[in-house]
Amino acid sequence: MSTKRFLFSAITLALSAILVMPAAAQSLTSGDITGVVTDPTGAVVANATVTAKNAETGTTQTQNTNAQGAYRFSLLSPGTYTVSASAKNFQSTQRQTTVSIGQASTLSFQLTLGTTEQIVEVTGEGSTAGSHYAGSAPQNSRNTASVSQYDVACANQQPPL
Predict the structure, then answer these.
(1) Is 10 helix (H, G, I), strand (E, B) or coil?
(2) Which helix (H) or strand (E) holds 96?
(3) 103-133 pLDDT, tens per residue?
(4) Range of the domain at 159
(5) 92, part of any domain
(6) Buried/exposed 111-131: b ≥16 CB within 10 Å, e otherwise
(7) Residue 117 lies in a domain
(8) Confidence band (pLDDT; 50, 70, 90) for 77?
(9) Residue 6: CB atoms within 10 Å
């Protein structure tokens, strides 16, 4: 019985070593970039877009931060990477980091508030004074009440022609 137990243990150990070898080989040929994206107050920014671009090969990887604002790029080739982070209502930012074999480079971002644009489009017609109304307005008067009588929207009666 002890021979069977020994044989079973040896087979289990061999299978475990074979299954663990690919994971160990990956960590010996690649590295990671990890970090957290926050806003100016230090609160985490969930669902921010983070992109890592390898400077030598030009390959890119993109992912979104989780609910805790964290991201992780795994199994990256060693080299220099430009990492950018962006989110709605924030300015995009980018930084460089170096990925080393078997190491996790930590690169966190604090995004600044972006500028918002507001476009107001006005359509429709308003009431305007006709050219003969404007021409008949007093020229040297500083009394705004006398000018308002010539605007149809300000007076209930038609001005004299």
Answers:
(1) helix
(2) strand 93-99
(3) 999 999 999 998 655 445 555 554 554 444 4
(4) 127-161
(5) yes
(6) beeeeeeeeeeeeeeeeebee
(7) no
(8) very high
(9) 10
